[in-house]
UniProtKB/TrEMBL annotation, chain A:
Main subcellular location: nucleus
Domain of life per record: Eukaryota
Subunit composition and interactions: Homodimers and heterodimers.
Cell cycle as UniProt keyword: no
InterPro entries named in the record: AUX/IAA_dom, AUX_IAA, PB1-like
PROSITE patterns to which the protein is assigned, alphabetical: PB1
Organism encoding this protein: Sesamum indicum (Oriental sesame)
One of the protein's GO biological processes: regulation of DNA-templated transcription
UniProtKB keywords: Auxin signaling pathway, Nucleus, Repressor, Transcription, Transcription regulation
Stated family: Belongs to the Aux/IAA family.
Localization, UniProt: Nucleus
UniProt protein name: Auxin-responsive protein
Pfam families: AUX_IAA
Database matches in PANTHER family: AUXIN-RESPONSIVE PROTEIN IAA17 (PTHR31734), AUXIN-RESPONSIVE PROTEIN IAA27 (PTHR31734:SF157)
From TrEMBL, chain B:
Domain COI1 F-box per the UniProt entry, residue ranges: 25-63
Gene3D superfamilies per the UniProt record, alphabetical: 1.20.1280.50, Ribonuclease Inhibitor (3.80.10.10)
Protein name: Protein TRANSPORT INHIBITOR RESPONSE 1-like
Subcellular location: Nucleus
Record flagged with keyword Nucleus: yes
Length: 327, 588
């Protein structure tokens, strides 16, 4: 298929830990038995990137204006403006929408002090991101939001220009120009997951690499983009989150939140649990995940399968040399 | 009134002494000889203010020129005052241009300077440029005008392509340093490296790590092989591990190394070879590059790390375990730059392995929070402060912080000279108490009496700025974003902070009253930047009218009402308003 698509559960699991903006959660035509209406409704309740209440990312400009226009009639003071700015720049995870409501409190206390000073100054208005007083806000806001949008758009265009070779994550969320203060050359090296160098055999450096993931006993499969992970630990934790609803046992329980595993640890972990992660390689053989360097694995992996440990006894780990001689 | 080039003294008249000057106790030649030993800019500036003959002696003996803002003075004025310059450092754009806050063709073009230098300083040997636009034409002029030219540094510059670099490589027979740091330009091919003549062997410093080009490895290898004095070599990521090994075999004497790509399928034999190549580098003090290094290949480095003082891992996203293992081999580390994928756990390992650490910079792997990676928190910073008591420079990007943590950190490390904390969500409070971060920065300025540079972030009220104004006696550079409640905050800083030189502010509720309150102060500073604040054209015009020795420049955003001054750049200058300002820069 040409367009990468994601199939998502009906709210049973969280979205992938690494999610690109372009991956809209679309209803698949092959998701039989699911009414279109119900899927759309459930999308409203999903945890996604984007401002709360936003339908899709194209409408973020419209949302930005409405956030100012509508909500500010309800609350007053500086707090909301700062809170809005926060959600604006952060892309509004749920936690931040709470912060918006919470920020109203401290915002008011601050504005209490500064409003006294306002009287002394004659030219003060047109707030930018941080609003000054109640009476000024309504008049200036449409202008403000337009400004923010244009600067946001400029950022996005710039971001897209910078995302040249190999960067699979296009500019998505609304961002403030020049914030956080990172040099552009750092942004390019850090955010990309795919290697740029053509030295490593067979690397294209761009696009995505979707493989099916099946699990014994699960009623449906998942698809993941291998390009979005940098190492086995990330893959493992993503799969754990994705399939946790199906595991009765302690699959991957050894993964304490912050820990990152090296490739050798992964094998220990899998051996300790009921389930084993395997993959089908280019030759059609089923292999144990974790034997070969990550790059080699993503190169040769065609699909993944989570097997019960007892079924995976027949798989023998291969050495790097053996794999290399095959390629 | 004579201009004063130095940053540190006010631009007052240097020569208005009494009616007659008493006879100097010794002849000019002696005075000049003595003064020729003085290197420090500050001292030279003081010397020039003593009396007229000292001023003259100083100007004849000065050989190094430092201009922190290229628009504060003109090439003509400089040429008139200093006849014998061999080394020039020039800085151009305001720092926020690094973050795309200035349009491309804003200015700071070095060409007019080079034209003047070609006329007046034919014996120029060094040119160090920062945030300037450097065209190929300028590089060609440079290459052909100065027969003794030795050292070129282009730090965060733009505007050139490989044609300009080819000219440098071909014509600068005595070149010892070619350092292209962080200059991002997409048009550079790699052909320039092959333009060094076959008999050219004087290179000591070569840094092209930020260039996006492929050089001829054969030519590079030959070049490295014949430059026996090479002590700094930083290649870009087009160079593979195995190629690096060959370079190291030619140059085991290297003191600073920037590797190329660290990701390559190696046979066991190749692995051993590169391991031993690294082990033979016994003088290595600085290491950087390491693109795409993984736990598989990092161990080849271990043998070279014993004398390492500066490790720059800002191009490779390591995990905590491989990072910790690497640190065990670097007990003498003084400076570390790292990406936050090492997380708090990695920073704990840093605290235990590197007690001599003086500088730490932690960069975010996910600045726009796309992947919801955790990065580092206040716990990591705390851990470092407990283990590394000599910490004096920190740049820390994080998503959460607490006042209590910062208070403890500065108690552990009171010697901070540079404290740059960036809580990435604008206006974010203490995540435990939900209060502003005022107390954190209060602790910083009260405890760290040597503080020279401060960047604040998080939710901050005017209280923070009251503290800064009151306690930060040595502060020279202050960066503020999304902070403060009113003009009062900025006024506190401008009325306090006696040594303030650079003030950069964005997205704060500071308006004309604040701007105008600092009018005399700006003459003692290098520059002021204010963007997306509440300053208006009226206020800027007023400032410009009252302070003729300041340049007040405004850039307006499109689609805004005419009253708003969106980006304001104020700086002292003896050269008057810019003559090369593009149309969108309004000089008031």
């Amino acid at each position: 298929m040409s367009i990468p698509q994601e199939h998502d559960y009906i709210g049973l699991s969280e979205p992938l830990p690494v999610e690109k903006s372009s991956d809209k959660i679309l209803p698949s035509s092959s998701a039989s038995g699911i009414e279109k209406n119900s899927v759309l409704n459930l999308r409203e309740t999903e945890l996604r990137l984007g401002l709360p209440g936003s339908e899709s990312l194209e409408r973020k400009a419209g949302n930005w204006v409405s956030l100012f226009g509508k909500d500010l009639k309800d609350e007053s003071g500086n707090g909301l403006c700062q809170g809005s700015l926060k959600s604006f720049v952060s892309g509004a995870k749920r936690g931040f929408s709470d912060a918006i409501n919470g920020s109203g409190k401290w915002g008011l206390s601050i504005s209490g002090g500064s409003e006294v000073d306002l009287g002394k100054n004659d030219v003060l208005f047109s707030p930018r991101g941080v609003c000054k007083g109640n009476n000024t806000m309504q008049s200036c806001l449409p202008g403000t939001s337009v400004k923010e949008i244009s600067s946001v758009k400029a950022v996005e265009e710039e971001e897209e220009k910078k995302n040249e070779s190999g960067n699979t994550a296009p500019a998505s969320k609304a961002q403030v120009v020049g914030w956080p203060p990172i040099r552009s050359f750092r942004k390019n090296t850090l955010a990309t997951n795919s290697p740029k160098n053509s030295e490593v055999a067979g690397k294209s450096g761009s696009g995505c690499l979707y493989v099916k993931v099946s699990m014994e006993g699960a009623p449906y499969l998942r698809k993941i983009d291998l390009k979005t992970y940098r190492c086995y630990a990330e893959l493992s934790s993503a799969l754990e989150k994705m399939f946790s609803c199906f595991t009765i046992g302690q699959y991957g329980q050894g993964l304490a939140g912050q820990e990152r595993l090296s490739e050798s640890h992964l094998m220990d972990l899998l051996h300790g649990s009921e389930y084993v992660l395997t993959y089908e390689d280019k030759d059609g053989d089923w292999m144990l995940v974790g034997d070969v360097p990550w790059e080699m694995f993503t190169d040769s992996c065609k699909r993944l399968r989570i097997m019960k440990g007892s079924d995976a006894i027949g798989l023998a780990p291969r050495t790097m040399q053996k794999c290399k001689s095959q390629n | 009134m004579d201009p004063d080039q130095s940053e540190d003294s006010p631009s007052n008249s240097a020569n208005s002494h009494g009616p007659t000057q008493p006879q100097s106790p010794f002849p000019d030649e002696v005075l000049e000889k003595v003064l020729s030993f003085i290197d420090s800019r500050k001292d030279r500036s003081s010397v020039s203010l003593v009396r007229k003959d000292w001023y003259n002696a100083e100007r004849w003996t000065r050989s190094k020129l430092f201009i922190g803002n290229c628009y504060s003075v003109s090439p003509e004025i400089v040429a008139r005052r200093f006849p014998r310059i061999k080394s020039v450092t020039l800085k151009g754009k305001p720092r926020f241009s690094d973050f795309n806050m200035l349009p491309r063709d804003w200015g700071a073009n070095v060409h007019s300077w080079l034209v003047m230098f070609a006329k007046v300083y034919p014996f120029l040997e060094e040119l160090r440029l920062k945030r300037m636009t450097v065209t190929d034409e300028s590089l060609e002029l440079l290459a052909k005008s100065f027969p003794r030219f030795k050292a070129l540094t282009l730090s965060s510059c733009d505007g050139f392509s490989d044609n300009g670099l080819k000219a440098i490589a071909s014509h600068c027979r005595n070149l010892t340093e070619l350092d292209i740091q962080d200059s991002v330009t997409d048009d550079v091919g790699g052909g320039w490296l092959s333009c060094f003549p076959e008999n050219f062997a004087s290179l000591e410093v070569l840094n092209f790590s930020s260039l996006n080009c492929e050089v001829s490895f054969d030519d590079l290898e030959r070049l490295v092989g014949r430059c026996k004095s090479l002590r700094v070599l930083k290649v870009n990521d087009s160079i593979t591990l195995d190629q690096l090994r060959r370079l190291l075999v030619h140059a085991p004497q290297l003191m600073e190394l920037g590797t190329g790509s660290f990701m390559q399928e190696l046979t066991p034999r190749q692995y051993e070879d590169i391991e031993s190549a690294f082990s033979n580098c016994r003088n290595l003090q600085v290491l950087s590059g390491l693109w795409e290094a993984t736990s598989l290949y990092l161990p080849v480095l271990y043998g070279a790390c014993a004398s390492l003082t500066f490790l720059n891992l800002s191009d490779v996203a390591l995990q905590s375990s491989e990072f910790a293992k690497l640190l065990v081999h670097c007990p003498n580390l003084r400076r570390l730059w790292v990406i936050d994928t090492v997380e708090d756990k990695g920073l704990e390992a840093l605290g235990s392995s590197c007690p001599l650490l003086e500088e730490l910079r932690v960069f975010p792997s996910d600045p726009y929070d796309r992947h919801h990676r955790d990065g580092v928190t206040e716990l990591g910073f705390l851990a470092v402060s407990r283990g590394c008591r000599k910490l004096r420079y920190v740049l820390y990007f994080c998503r959460r912080m607490t006042n209590a943590a910062v208070v403890t950190i500065v108690q552990n490390c009171p010697d901070f000279t540079h404290f740059r904390l960036c809580i990435m969500t604008p206006g974010q409070p203490d995540y435990l108490t939900n209060e502003p971060m005022d107390e954190a920065f209060a602790a910083v300025v009260k405890t760290c009496t040597k503080l020279k540079r401060l960047s604040v972030s998080g939710l901050l009220t005017d209280l923070t700025f009251e503290y800064i104004g009151k306690y930060a006696k040595n502060l020279e550079t202050l960066s503020v974003a999304f902070a403060g409640s009113s003009d009062w905050g900025m006024q506190c800083v401008l009325e306090g902070c006696p040594k303030l030189r650079k003030l950069e502010i964005r997205d704060c509720p500071f308006g004309n009253a604040a701007l105008l309150s600092g009018r005399e102060k700006y003459e003692m500073m290098r520059s002021l930047w204010m963007s997306s604040c509440n300053v208006t054209m009226k206020g800027c015009r007023l400032l410009a009218r009252e302070m003729p020795r300041l340049n007040v420049e405004v850039i307006k955003d499109e689609g805004n009402d005419d009253g708003q001054a969106d980006r304001v750049y104020v700086y002292r200058s003896v050269a008057g308003p810019r003559r090369d300002a593009p149309p969108f820069v309004l000089t008031l």
